[in-house]
Amino acid sequence: MISIHWCVMRTLSLISAFVGLLVLSGCGPSVQHYVRVDVLQSRQQFAEAETVIVKHKAEYGARNAVLYHLDRAMMLHLAGQYNESSQALAQAENRIEALYTQSVTAGAGAMLSNDNTLPYEGEDFEKVMINVIASLNYAYLGQWDEALVEARKVDHKLSLFNDKYEKKNVYKRDALAQYLSGMLYEAKGELNDAFISYRKAYEAYGDYRKNYGTPIPPMLPADLLRLTAALRLSEEHQDYLKQFPNTRWIPAKELKGQSELIFVSTTGRSPTKTDFFIDAPIPDKKGGTYILRVALPKFVPLPDKVKTAEVHLIPVDAAGSGGATSQRTFPAEDITAIAKKNLEDRIARITAKAIARAVVKYQMSQTAQKELGPLAGLATNVYNVATEQSDKRSWRTLPGQIQLARLVVPPGMYTIAVEYYDHTNGLIERKTFPSVTLKAGEKRFLGYRVLGPQ
Fold first, then answer.
1. CB count in 10 Å sphere of residue 42
2. What does the pLDDT read at residue 115?
3. Model's pTM, two decimal places?
4. Is 134 helix (H, G, I), strand (E, B) or coil?
């Protein structure tokens, strides 16, 4: 009787421990509030969306503190609370740095369940986007030095990532961060640094075109021609003239007397993660093969109803300013494409870890059945199936893509009208910014967010 009682107690203790781990294994944040956040975003009610996120802070929990700060930072950014957004982004970045070295205990827990038991550190591209969004925050405020600090962090981060992965990643450079750096340096009058950044952006967009289908921005050839001429880099200037023979560009001296609007359009939603499963054969103790099923994450794109936007600068005094100027936005950062490719690059590492985790679970199940009987074996098998899921957490409030427009106009007061079009060229939305004064030699950054019809 004692032996039977002992076995029952051991089995119940084992099941209780599995239940505890099972609860931990589903520690991703609740996603229900994102529905409300998306609705509020579609109505341009970003401050209200941030309030919803704050209200649900407890549901994020300690393991998802990074996601809480990121989601809140994005809504503050869109609400025009740029300093507060940068503070929240800094909190996320500090938390990520603190999590860089994982504890042994947390790692062991993940081997018995899944990666949801670990604190979320963010995908590599999400860590980069922290600095891109922060750079835009400061650019909107006209704080060029602070914006440049954030843009320069991107190169350092990507270098560390690629050293860690033995330079096997496709995402080696962020073209938008380099392009922003060029514009920011030029706004400060530091033309040599601006040229270096524009050149790096040109090289990076060459990779973007190949890997993500993002073309080189149409204004970038003019930037290279203007700065090589201003810096008297004759050889480089002639080379770019050959590459871009039909490009019209404004000399740097002439540009000083003009104003430039840099319009940043963020559209769509970042992709979400889901599970996909693979079967991994492993040898069993009887000389046969046991098939383990493991869960892996993949990004699923969300449809973006916005194709492009047309930006119109309409002089308040048309007679004095020379008429309206218009330009369509061009793709600058396809966050969805980068997210998918970045995850695909490291899927082999994720797969190896998932298979190792499944093997540990299988061995645990076999041991439990051998030592404690069929009931314990059944309990562990149920647990193994229930906990086999990938880490589907992600920064869900990011846009799906970032587009830019750059318009050079005479100084003056303008009404800025932006028209958003869908993929059939149907008008989705029109946004007006009345009475915007642009000064000579000024670069003015202005942004707007559109989700499209929900």
1. 16
2. 65
3. 0.86
4. helix
